[in-house]
């Protein structure tokens, strides 16, 4: 098993080993998007040993510092972060920020200074006065269906968001949402949930990769799993791409077979 924090390095005489943290550059190399893909959708989620994706309605309580470093790295690599409206409300989402550690890498890849946030919502029941809509570094997208309330779509546009239609009715079709963003040059996609949105991507079989942190905690209760909603008739098989460990937390990465 490859260890994430701390990793060790050898001194010049190879006689001693001292722990150090991986740099953000090393993490970015480890989690780089695959080359040669038209569009790639990865998810980043955390789960307890007994399958809870949240504690007291939020994921922070089951996370750790290393998990947050990976969280920041995955954002630093993405063109756009896809998130459900419920998660925006519960987690208090703010605009993604530019980070100096990823600036040169993003510029070389032809990316903007920070990933765009793309909110997936059928009802557009959102507070458009929040900084996510009024003062993002790059414009926020609102992805909805053609049957969404026209007044709410207009409110989103007035707040500065770009509205994308990805469904003929009131709901969003996951494959169309991915395609609509790709058509705007946003091909390195990351979803941070919540569980309902991830479940929709899984059911539509458009998820390419899952970055899952397994937290060494037990919560019991009735918290959501990392993915909810309708199930697949036949489970889809993913293959492990990497696994890292620190303080009992496992940082796994699985890709579509």
Automatic annotation (TrEMBL):
Pfam families the UniProt entry points to: RibD_C
Record bears the keyword NADP: yes
Alphabetical keyword list: NADP, Oxidoreductase
Every Bacterial bifunctional deaminase-reductase C-terminal domain range: 40-234
Keyword Oxidoreductase carried by entry: yes
Stored InterPro entries: DHFR-like_dom_sf, RibDG_C, Riboflavin_Biosynth_HTPR
Pathway entry: Cofactor biosynthesis; riboflavin biosynthesis
PANTHER family attached to this UniProt entry: 2,5-DIAMINO-6-RIBOSYLAMINO-4(3H)-PYRIMIDINONE 5'-PHOSPHATE REDUCTASE (PTHR38011:SF7), DIHYDROFOLATE REDUCTASE FAMILY PROTEIN (AFU_ORTHOLOGUE AFUA_8G06820) (PTHR38011)
The name this protein goes by in its record: Pyrimidine reductase family protein
């Amino acid at each position: 098993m490859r260890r994430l924090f701390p990793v060790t390095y050898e001194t010049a005489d190879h006689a001693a080993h001292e722990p150090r943290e991986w740099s953000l550059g090393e993490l970015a190399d480890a989690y780089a998007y695959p080359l040669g893909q038209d569009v790639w959708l990865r998810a980043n989620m955390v789960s307890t040993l007994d399958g809870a994706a949240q504690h007291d309605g939020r994921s922070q309580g089951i996370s750790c510092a290393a998990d947050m470093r990976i969280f920041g790295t995955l954002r630093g690599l993405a063109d756009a972060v896809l998130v459900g409206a419920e998660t925006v409300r519960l987690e208090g989402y703010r605009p993604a920020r530019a980070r100096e550690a990823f600036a040169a890498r993003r510029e070389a890849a032809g990316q903007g200074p920070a990933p765009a946030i793309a909110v997936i919502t059928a009802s557009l029941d959102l507070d458009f006065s929040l900084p996510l809509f009024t003062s993002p570094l790059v414009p926020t997208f609102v992805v909805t269906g053609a049957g969404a309330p026209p007044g709410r779509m207009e409110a989103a546009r007035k707040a500065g968001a770009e509205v994308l239609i990805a469904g003929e009715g009131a709901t969003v079709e996951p494959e169309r949402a991915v395609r609509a963003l790709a058509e705007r040059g946003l091909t390195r996609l990351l979803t941070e949930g919540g569980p309902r949105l991830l479940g929709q991507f899984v059911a539509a079989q458009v998820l390419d990769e899952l970055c899952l942190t397994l937290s060494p905690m037990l919560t019991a209760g009735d918290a959501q799993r990392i993915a909810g909603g309708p199930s697949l008739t036949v489970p889809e098989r993913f293959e492990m791409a990497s696994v890292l460990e620190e303080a009992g937390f496992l940082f796994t990465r699985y890709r579509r077979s």
